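Reading a protein record of the kind used here takes only a little practice. The record below shows the convention in full.

——
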Amino acid sequence: MNVPGADRRPVPSVQEAGPGRLNALLLIAVTGLLVAGGIAWAVGASRVADLCWGAGTVAAVVPAVVWVLSALRHGRSGVDLIAVLALAGTLVVHEYLAGALIALMLATGRSLESAAARRATRDLRALLEHAPRSARRRVGEGVQVVPLGDVAVGDVLVVAPGEVVPVDGELASISATLDESVLTGESRHAERLRGDPVRSGVVNAGGALEVRATATAEKSTYAEIVRLARDARAESAPVVRLADRYAAWFLPLTTSMAGLAWWIGGSAQRAVAVLVVATPCPLLLAAPVAIVSGLSRAARRGVVIRGGGTLETLGRARTLVLDKTGTLTTGRPRVVDIAAAPGRQPSEVLRLAASLDQMSAHVLARAIVVEADRRGLELSLPEQATEEPGRGIDGTADGRRITLGRRPAGADRPGWARTADNRATLDGAAVAWLTVDGALAGGVLLRDPMRRDAARTVRRLRAAGIERLLMLTGDRAEAAREVAQVLGVDDVRTEQTPADKAAVVRAERAGAVTVMVGDGVNDAPALAAADVGVAMGQHGSSASSEVSDVVLTTDRLDRLADAVVIAVRARRIAVQSASAGMAMSLAAMVVAAFGLLAPAAGALLQEGIDVLVILNALRALGGGRVAGPVLEPGAEHLIERFAAEHDDLREVLELIRNAADLLSDDAGPKALAVVREVERALTERLLPHEDAEEHQLYPALAVVLGGPEATATMSRAHAEIERLARRIRTHLLIAGPDAVLQTGQLADLRACLYGLYTVLRLHFVQEEESYFSLTS
């Protein structure tokens, strides 16, 4: 990939790997000398013991001086100076054992820090090591290995089993099984079909496949993430710099207490004891370890954070600004309803529309074709298809002239079309109108649906400390306000330009630390203006990823909540560890100043303090709930099954509503025939689905959600659905074979149909948000 250094396998630099090895060697040397001195002292060779312990002290003095000088060169206060003074003091007053213990303390602390840093950067380094350097390009009947930079858009690439997909593309094989865990954090394999997009960086977990390149290497997903990973180093976060600011008063306080102890007590040993217990490893190591551990944990959840400063700022965020399209919604429109002219069936309207839209690259066209394919409709191949941007597409199919797009100017708008227009306005949907041989035949309503995990994510963000939520969108107010109302955001701004979005973010920053989340090119200015910019990396633009501080590499909004929870926890642990370590050291300094703590005992005590606070900082690697309940494979399979059935049952919901609409206009035999069709669909498809949920899915979920009470509300909805279905069936029995409604039946039957439609729609949404969002 055309990124700096991508032409070779990344290897640890001296700055990365060297200190780790040196710290390990120092720990081994100091431990060996301390143990050797202990053995010599046990056999009565006290001078040999002092010699070993003194050598261990000297071994630690040299790197400690280097650490002090390095800190001063980087503009920090060099708080390791206290350690140098303590080590030198033990040599001056001949407290060699205390010096060796301080040396062990420093070496142990540095080794713990190195181990934490290695673990923290392991996940990010895996991205770099995973990057492909070449590709297999199809040339005629053969395959040619070419440098990755030579791959052009349109090339067909062959990816062998176990290999990494080198560039973004679309699947040219019939199907493929892909391991996307490096990018998404999801361990389960993903199934893809011909024409589906495939991102660079994923691993071919099945047989050999072919991918048609849609982007060059430098424009592909993985290159963007590699660039982010190279920037994602554990830089000094504000909380770590806070530790350096603590040192500005901790250092003079320590030296002052040591001087007073010497002056009042008349003993240099008291001063050395104060310096020994003041050695500031908790201050220097605890906060960085916690921050770096948080970076590691976020990387494992599919969240790439540029550095420790970003993580700490994210942990202080109180305002969150969210783009709508592609962030709170999927960014992929789907068919939500089909309006048909009298005498036509919705399935026929969809079939003709999809047949024509096979020739269109428009985003709405793809949604219509996908819906027809999902319903198993057999499409015709259109002829003489031409598309006019902004107007629609026309052509010939099944021997008839068909157009799809805007309603023709001046065309009559019959009652059914006005109803469809009203429904689209109320639902914030777009309508693709179908005409057949010049006559309006139907309309396909499409809408960008809300992400299933959006509501859950918003609740978790509130619980994590986000106090203000704003939604920004360039969309119309009608479409945006419904999303805002469902999610419970505090404010919504519609019809926003990129400049408007950036201005809103700057205004919010004046009141609180502000995070902006977006996915498109139009979001890039606002992302750059925020304290922390978060890009939806999987489907987002490269521009939004380039200016962002955080990238979600998986197409799940709940990873944003994971990142905030991890950041809050890591920052809290960092401050807690540094503060607790300083408090314990100050208490020990007071005790030592009164002569109640010898240097050797103080060194042992300080060693214990250091280990405690560093181990506490390492808690940031785990703990705290960042994911949903852990599902058993059986429960996960059931969720996937019933989620797919929900998609299939949308037709039944359409049928119920259409039957209720027909009863409003005509209560004759034709309308009742549609109601009988509804009753058959309820009996054969919907009620078996609800019964299977009740007796298979809900018991499996109760195990991980805390018992049957967790699904009790949904079970009550099942009972109401069955009651309404039974009431509709009874109405049909009363009407009898003559299909004649008795007095008073019409209003109640219509109410039953509209009521069932409403209950089902709400029930489906609740299940999708509460249960189906638990899995990808």
